[in-house]
Design brief:
By secondary structure, this protein is of the alpha+beta class. The chain has 5 domains: about 180 residues, 3-Layer(aba) Sandwich (Rossmann fold); about 80 residues, Translation factors (Elongation Factor Tu (Ef-tu), domain 3); about 80 residues, Elongation Factor G (Translational Gtpase), domain 3 (Alpha-Beta Plaits, 2-Layer Sandwich); about 110 residues, Alpha-Beta Plaits (2-Layer Sandwich), CATH 3.30.70.240; about 110 residues, Alpha-Beta Plaits. It is about 25% helix and about 35% strand. It has 14 helices and 32 strands. The strands form 6 sheets. It has an 8-stranded antiparallel beta sheet with strand order 11-10-16-7-8-15-12-13. Strands 2-3-1-4-5-6 form a 6-stranded mixed beta sheet, with helices on both faces. Strand 10 and strand 11 form a beta hairpin. The chain is elongated, with a radius of gyration of 29 Å. The termini are far apart.
């Protein structure tokens, strides 16, 4: 039976038609009827349907008859955005092949190349598919040549199809059955199954997605997770076809879901190996690296503040974050307290889109309004005793006497852009401290640029700038390659002499003065005038590098004092001066929420 199983993923650049192709495969194999089908059938989250993107990978089993034999096809629809690359790499580990979708109007893009390399690293068989051939601007032959040039896949092997009209889908299904390899032979008779995803269900607990490599899983088995070392009883097994269909057992080469009354997502580690407790396997399957959070920011409830705010808002935010964490194991959180914003959470994300989606889900599903601080990246600080310390918040940076160096994350970036925009793109990368690595010819009109850039320089607005200077044709893909030392400093912002930790930033020494001054000018517009003068300062250590002043509001105390001796006026003015001095010594500055948001806006 295992000879008739095909496990594959659908991979592509964002918006090249993966989810539509998955819909069409479900229809062509009669897995869903015409009446049940709808667009983006596998994207179950409201946010996925609204934004038109896939966030979570989803696994489905269908059947197809080719050359008189019935094949079981297990396929996974994966996300295309760079922030969710870890979802793609997890899905590929559970497969023997991949369908690489390329848009016939746009050609090979940055993520196409990145995902193809991911598949090649896993030794998967690739089937190139040129999609959207029904569009007037389609150029399938040129795109096939591009695929051959960049990825080395023969142009004549590319299948032209349209996921919208269904043209070429039957041919693709036959090619999958004939070309993709069956699951590998069992190497042991002991049961080994790989966990490649898990979701939380309010009624059944954690639903675990598994791919069985050796042996089989049966309902009622007592299983052990080899990494976590905990044991559970299997209460339900099944497959998504795409409705959940129960099964008595899952054999070698099959993918499906498993329910075992697991209460929290923390008990399940993606990449762990499941084996039978009474007869365990000698060693686990190779798993995955844990996804590493790269972007950090603080979330605070919008209604609380320096006055302490309402405790209930903080509790609502905590509940919302804990509920969300059940369904998304790739973000982290820890409670923090800020003088200016009260109690909140320091959260870690895989990238800016991930942060954006989590914030929207918290506000939508948790019903809380959120104030967020400026996103920062994770730095490594080399202490004087030689140890390395991770710092995710500039306010946590130790005293300069205790550390020797700050290391920042560096990314290897691939940019695909039109040839006539190359000068602008190189200038943009140069301004962001980029190091040029190589340039590759893609076609007559497009080229690939390789750069090494600091992550901190690209997380804000790099993508928007790239899109606008390439008229929307530029695409980028990046991966973290390591940490690198540079002349980095922490800039503190002092308001009325007191440092505000939520406004602190870590920047390059050469840009520190410019960034500090820009920030102070924004704050000056945001903070209202008080009865006394407020100095705003940017400082590195004890040295002030920029200053702005918010003038005091002035009350005319001599208005009712007309005529008579000038000493009367002077007496009143002296009295006012004393009052202002006293007010300044005990007065506290009210900082509005907008001031914290001003830090987010980056201008060149």
């Amino acid at each position: 039976m295992a000879q008739q199983i095909r496990n594959f993923s659908i991979i592509a650049h964002i918006d090249h038609g993966k989810s539509t192709l998955a819909d069409r495969l479900l229809q062509s194999t009669r897995a869903v009827s015409e009446r049940e089908s709808r667009e983006q059938l596998l994207d179950s989250m409201d946010l996925e349907r609204e934004r038109g993107i896939t966030i979570k990978a989803s696994a489905v089993t269908v059947h197809h008859t080719c050359d008189g034999q019935e094949y079981m096809l297990n396929f996974i629809d994966t996300p295309g955005h760079v922030d969710f690359t870890y979802e793609v790499s997890r899905a590929l580990t559970a497969c023997e092949g991949a369908v690489l979708v390329v848009d016939s109007t746009q050609g090979v893009q940055a993520q196409t190349v990145a995902n193809a390399y991911l598949a090649v690293e896993q030794d998967l068989e690739l089937i190139p598919v040129i999609n959207k051939i029904d569009l007037p601007a389609a150029a399938p032959d040129e795109v096939a040549m591009e695929i051959e040039q960049v990825l080395g896949l023969p142009a004549e092997e590319a299948i032209s199809c349209s996921a919208k009209t269904g043209a070429g889908i039957h041919e693709l299904l036959d090619r999958i059955c004939r070309k993709l390899p069956p699951p590998r032979e069992q190497v042991t008779d002991k049961t080994r199954a790989l966990i490649f995803d898990s979701v939380y269900d309010d009624y059944r607990g954690v639903v675990v997605y598994v791919r069985v490599f050796d042996g089989k899983l049966t309902v009622g088995d007592k299983i052990r997770m080899m990494g976590a070392g905990r044991t559970w009883h299997v209460t339900e097994l099944g497959k998504y076809t795409p409705k959940a269909t129960k099964a008595q057992s899952l054999g070698p080469g099959e993918t499906g879901y498993m329910v075992a009354a697991i209460k929290t997502l923390a008990d399940v580690r993606v990449g762990d190996t499941i084996t039978i407790d009474a007869d365990p396997a000698a060693e686990p399957l190779p798993g995955y690296e844990e996804p590493k959070q790269m972007v950090f920011c603080d979330f605070y409830p919008a209604t609380s503040g320096a006055s302490g705010g309402k405790g209930s808002d903080f509790e609502t935010l905590r509940d919302a974050i804990e509920r969300l964490k059940l369904n998304d194991a790739s973000f982290t959180y820890a409670p923090v307290h800020s003088e200016a914003l009260g109690f909140g959470f320091r959260c870690g994300f895989l990238g800016l889109l991930h942060m954006d989606i989590i914030q929207e889900r918290l506000e939508r599903e948790g019903g809380v309004e959120i104030v967020q601080t400026a996103p920062t990246v994770s730095y490594q600080v080399k202490m004087t005793d030689g140890t390395l310390k991770d710092v995710t918040n500039p306010a946590d940076l130790p005293d300069p006497n205790y550390y020797e160096d700050i290391l920042e994350p560096i990314v290897k970036m691939e940019i695909i852009c039109p040839t006539d925009c190359i000068g602008d793109v190189m200038k943009l990368c140069g301004n962001r401290r980029g190091v040029y690595k190589s340039q590759q010819f893609l076609s007559d009109t497009r080229q690939i640029l390789d750069y090494h850039l600091p992550l901190a320089e690209i997380i804000y607005d790099f993508h928007d700038k790239l899109k606008s200077m390439t008229r929307g044709y530029g695409t980028m893909d990046y991966e973290i390659v390591g940490y690198h030392s540079d002349r980095l400093v922490k800039v503190d912002i002092l308001i009325n002499g007191d440092p505000v930790e939520a406004l602190a930033i870590i920047v390059h020494r050469e840009k520190a003065e410019q960034r500090g001054r820009m920030l102070l000018q924004k704050l000056r517009k945001q903070i209202p005038r008080h009865q006394f003068e407020i100095p705003l300062q940017a400082a590195i250590g004890g040295k002030i590098i920029a200053r702005e002043t918010i003038k005091s509001m002035r009350k005319n105390v001599t208005a009712k004092c007309y005529g008579g001796d000038v000493t009367r006026k002077r007496k009143l003015l002296e009295k006012q001066k004393e009052g202002k001095k006293r007010m300044k010594s005990i007065g506290s500055v009210e900082i509005p929420q907008e001031a914290f948001m001003a830090v987010l806006e980056q201008e060149e």
